[in-house]
Amino acid sequence: MSGGPITLNSTPATGEGVSWVRSPRTGSNGAPARKGYPISQLRLLIRYNPKTGQLYWLPRTPEMFVKKEPACSAWNKKNAGKEIIGLDQGGYIRVGFFGEQVSGHRVAWALYYGEWPTLCIDHINGVRSDNRIDNLRNVSFQENARNSKLASN
């Protein structure tokens, strides 16, 4: 999907009353522009376990789909409750939503802290798929590059 807003009428607990909006790509400090997606919307899509670092798809409501019930039912049957495990070529977990791919560690940070990271997310132990909150830190590009050199030795 690309383009303008996705609109939905729902309440935060059920997904009703929320306006689904895509943010413009405005990243200027090296952080992905996706940081603008409202966390309230993200929390309706994904559950994060900070102790294990795992991300799971939440069930969706028909209002989130153009073809309402058939598409919702099919999506939930295939994905709801399942762990998000897709890895990119660099070994990072990738999450697709609103037609975009976002790093799992950025999603984990956003869900835990309630805001998108402003800098780079560093995996302290060097394991790129380890998204436990205790293993993530928001650091400058330079600090992240120093740690990646240590992890590769």
Q: Rg to the nearest angstrom? A: 16 Å
Q: Cα distance, first to last residue?
A: 40 Å
Unreliable spans are 1-34
Q: How would a textbook summarize the main sheet?
A: 2 strands, antiparallel
Number of DSSP strand runs: 6
| Helix amount | 25-40%
- Structural class by SSE content: alpha+beta
Short key terms for the protein model shown above:
elongated; two-stranded antiparallel sheet; 4 helices; two-stranded antiparallel ribbon; alpha+beta; 153 residues; disordered N terminus
Topology of helices and strands:
Elements: H1 39-45, E1 46-49, E2 54-57, H2 68-79, E3 94-97, E4 100-103, H3 104-113, E5 120-123, E6 136-139, H4 141-152
Q: How would you concisely characterize the structure shown here?
A:
Helix content is 27%, strand content 16%.
